[in-house]
Amino acid sequence: MRAVGIVVLIVTALLGTAYALGRSLVPDRPASDVTTSGQHYADQPPTDDPDRPTPGDDRSTGPAVAGQDGGASPSGTPTKTDGPYGTQTTSGTSQVALTFDDGPDPQYTPQVLALLREHHVRATFCVVGENAQSHPDLVRAIVADGHTLCNHSWNHDVTLGQQSPETIRADLLRTSEAIRAAVPNAPIAYYRQPGGAWTGSVVSVARELGMTPLHWTVDPADWETPGADRIAGMVLTNVEPGSVVLLHDAGGDRQGTVDALYEILPALTSRFKVAALPNGAT
Predict the structure, then answer these.
(1) Facing residues of 99 across strands?
(2) How far apart (Å, rounded) are the C-alpha atoms in residues 189 and 143?
(3) CB 102 within 8 Å of CB 74
(4) Which of 31, 127, 132, 239 stands 20 to 30 A from 142 (CA)?
(5) Residue 216: closest CA among 59, 61, 51, 64
(6) 162, 256 contact by CB (below 8 A)
(7) 44-65 pLDDT per residue, tens
(8) Is 280 exposed, middle or buried (0-12, 13-18, 19+ CB in 10 A)?
(9) How far apart are CA 237 and CA 233, in angstroms?
């Protein structure tokens, strides 16, 4: 009897141990009730990559080629060429350069020209070919006021740099021909890639055609139409000697940019020499 009792005790102890072990392997609540902390990236709305170019967005995704000083502007002045793929990013002097992209536009370009004239400022206009073809009178007005011309592709194709060199060359030549149809003898000293989406091919072709690939130093993102105060504040806060400032006189509602010039121009001219980039003309 004693032996039977001992066996019963042992079996009971083993059963108890097995039950406890089983309970430890079972969660206290169903798995469907378990919550976790942290980010659920797949559930978040998509956000724009600030470095990805989009139509109207003149920012670059190309890798910067840093430390390549010693390039030259059309005037022969040494310039800073540490932009994407060795593009020019500064005026090469202490002067500040205002640049206006995507025009000409019959609503906004005349307003920009009038304000520049009022403040005795010359700028650089990066002209889209199809707009130059549609508004040759405005191209002539730009040149008549002493501003510098820049080729900005035929129809603002952000992906142009990804095309073959032959396609890029044809686009740039077509744009320059449209500009020169309005102003036959005006030099076109610069090329600016739409979206700032530079590639080695588009830089090489621009140089082969005698144009300096032109990037920028200050981008107030006026293409996002943030309002005149925001545009002016971004420019005046970030500009420094030698800055190339990116602005737009076409490509959308640019009244905010025009209105910002009422603040930008007097403030800049009180602090810096503001001038067009040299066009190489003698």
Answers:
(1) 124, 246
(2) 13
(3) no
(4) 239
(5) 59
(6) no
(7) 223 333 333 333 344 333 333 3
(8) middle
(9) 6
- Which is the catalytic residue, given 101, 102, 105, 249? 101
Active site residue 101: yes
What is the C-alpha to C-alpha distance for residues 146 and 116, in angstroms, rounded to an integer?
Answer: 11
The predicted pLDDT at position 80 comes to 65
Strands 69-72 and 78-80: antiparallel
The per-residue pLDDT for 30 is 32
Q: Sort 69 into a burial class: Cβ within 10 Å, 0-12 / 13-18 / 19+.
A: exposed
Q: What is the pLDDT of residues 235-265, one digit of tens each?
A: 999 999 999 999 999 999 999 999 999 999 9
Q: What angle, rounded to 10 degrees, do the helices at 109-118 and 255-271 form?
A: 20
Low-confidence ranges of the chain (pLDDT < 70): 1-81, 281-282
Q: How many whole angstroms separate alpha carbon 237 and alpha carbon 265?
A: 14
pTM of this structure: 0.74
> Are 149 and 143 spatial neighbours (Cβ–Cβ below 8 Å)?
yes
- Show the tokens assigned to 124: 């650089």
248 catalytic residue (yes or no): yes
Q: Which of 105, 147, 248, 249 is labelled catalytic?
A: 248
CB atoms within 10 A of CB 177: 13
Name the 3-class secondary structure at 163.
Answer: coil
Collect all residues with Cβ–Cβ distance below 8 Å to 157 and sequence separation of at least 6: 171, 194
Question: Distance (Å, rounded) from C-alpha 264 to C-alpha 266?
Answer: 6
For residues 218 and 235, the answer to whether their CB atoms sit within 8 Å is: yes
Rounded-to-integer distance, Cα 83 and Cα 206, Å: 15
Residue partners of 170: CB distance under 8 A and separation at least 6 = none
Angle, CA of 29, 32 and 38, to the nearest 5°: 105
